Amino acid sequence: MGRDTIYSTPRTSVPPFEFDAAVAEVFDDMIHRSVPMYGEIIRRQAQLVQRACRPGTRVYDLGCSTGNLAMALCGRMPAGAFEMVAVDSSQPMLDIFKKRLSAAGRSEGITQVRSDIRQVNMGRAGVVVVNFTLQFIPPVDRDALIQRIYEALVPGGMLLFSEKTMHPNQALSDLQVEFYYRFKRENGYSELEISQKREALENVLVPETVEAHHDRLRRCGFSGVDVWLKWFNFCSWICTK
């Protein structure tokens, strides 16, 4: 795992953020230093998937990146104990994921799909996981995606997802952002790196309020919705059909 120094050099123009080869090479360092409690999220989601897995159903990881959830599952469940479809639009991310599976000798039951998650076919889903991915989908497409996930889930199935959020109260929003940037500085990011990363993500990562997520989930039919983890402007949900 390389160290994330992508935004450590001043740039005259900062291009929009994308999950290219450079990001893939440092992704694990980037996400652990940029997403509060990321390790805890993956650990508990793997436990929830293990608990919810049913014979004949699939686990879908939409926006699987370098396969952190799959690797956590492999550490908890024997080969053949679960069927996963791992989807990502970034080939460099999937390439690293494939190498990790090969090194662990654990490719059985895990199918990698390079696709826009809005276009992937889903069915017989026992659990669908969407971590920090919906925020990169155009807002006008989010309802349709969540509706498709709901329809793909078996009765009693579970949606697990995590997002960066925003608060409707400006003072509280500013406070959340202040503490988030404090978190990044504590993890070794400079003011230049924070500033340039923020510029790169402008209009690429579009967060929503917790209430907007809840409204969408209910519109799409989810009967059980719970925020199981919240750290200022980062949230993780459990949603049941």
Structure characterization notes:
By secondary structure, the chain is of the alpha/beta class. The chain is 43% helix and 20% strand. The protein has helices at 21-34, 38-52, 68-76, 91-104, 139-152, 170-186, 191-201, 210-219, and strands at residues 58-62, 84-88, 110-114, 125-131, 153-164, 224-231, 234-240. Strands 3-2-1-4-5-7-6 form a 7-stranded mixed beta sheet, sandwiched between helices. α2 packs across α3. The longest helix has 17 residues, at 170-186. The model has no long low-confidence stretch (mean pLDDT 97).
Question: What structural keywords apply?
Answer:
single chain, alpha/beta, 241 residues, seven-stranded mixed sheet
How would you sum up the major sheet? 7 strands, mixed
Task: Count the E strands.
Answer: 7
Overall pLDDT, averaged? Answer: 97
Q: What proportion strand?
A: 15-25%
Shape descriptor reads globular
Give the N-terminus to C-terminus distance in angstroms.
Answer: 37 Å
Radius of gyration: 18 Å
Task: Return the structural class.
Answer: alpha/beta
Number of H/I helices: 8
Q: How much helicity do the residues have? A: 40-55%
Across the major sheet, the strand order is: 3-2-1-4-5-7-6
Element-level helix/strand string? HHEHEHEEHEHHHEE
List the helices and strands and how they pair.
Elements: H1 21-34, H2 38-52, E1 58-62, H3 68-76, E2 84-88, H4 91-104, E3 110-114, E4 125-131, H5 139-152, E5 153-164, H6 170-186, H7 191-201, H8 210-219, E6 224-231, E7 234-240
Parallel strand pairs: 1-2, 1-4, 2-3, 4-5
Antiparallel strand pairs: 5-7, 6-7
